[in-house]
């Protein structure tokens, strides 16, 4: 089941301030993509359809979840990416945070922060946590996962190199696009991940190449931090990271999930 968070294009165009809504992505008998509206936030209210159906072309898709707490990220989780960054292979998952203010949705702009001259893309599979949990054993990891979405761990690479830690480089506003929806039923064991910039293939890899797998990541993260409903865990990026030029368009595609596309602009 695919769950999207959205506003109506008409309301968006009019600048009307309305609460985001949620819906189940589907297809009507005529083959048109639609949203079946549901009541409230499914992370807290469950999936309760209202009966209202809206054509997908009539909505603006938003970030499918805004973490109330945190985005936890796993670094250096693909061997080829470790090699291209000339880094050491971690013995345990390497963790860092992005604040929830970094999260944006599909087709929103990744904005180069003032002072950085090297913002790069990192396409990733993201886990969405479904309930309050702590110290989850790996064999129960699926019990606390609400679903999966696509993320782009945009990184100010020059700041990452100069700062010695990653808070500024990976936590700036707009550095965490996610979307276009959450898929609640997905076999993540061997999915293709690709990233294109203006149609040029930049990154390609498969989730089977992860050093630390989904269940290991959930166990490790939850042993350190209490996880709340809506928290996101980014699982690392394959090789091929590179520059996001001003005015470019970056798309992250994950097999079985869809495509997350964002424009790139410079803060002037």
Automatic annotation (TrEMBL):
Residues 1-64 form the Rv2993c-like N-terminal domain. It holds the Pfam family FAA_hydrolase. Keywords: Metal-binding. GO terms for biological process: carboxylic acid metabolic process. InterPro entries: Fumarylacetoacetase-like_C (IPR011234), Fumarylacetoacetase_C_sf (IPR036663), Rv2993c-like_N (IPR018833). Residues 70-265 form the Fumarylacetoacetase-like C-terminal domain. GO terms for molecular function: acetylpyruvate hydrolase activity; isomerase activity; metal ion binding. This is Unannotated protein. It comes from freshwater metagenome.
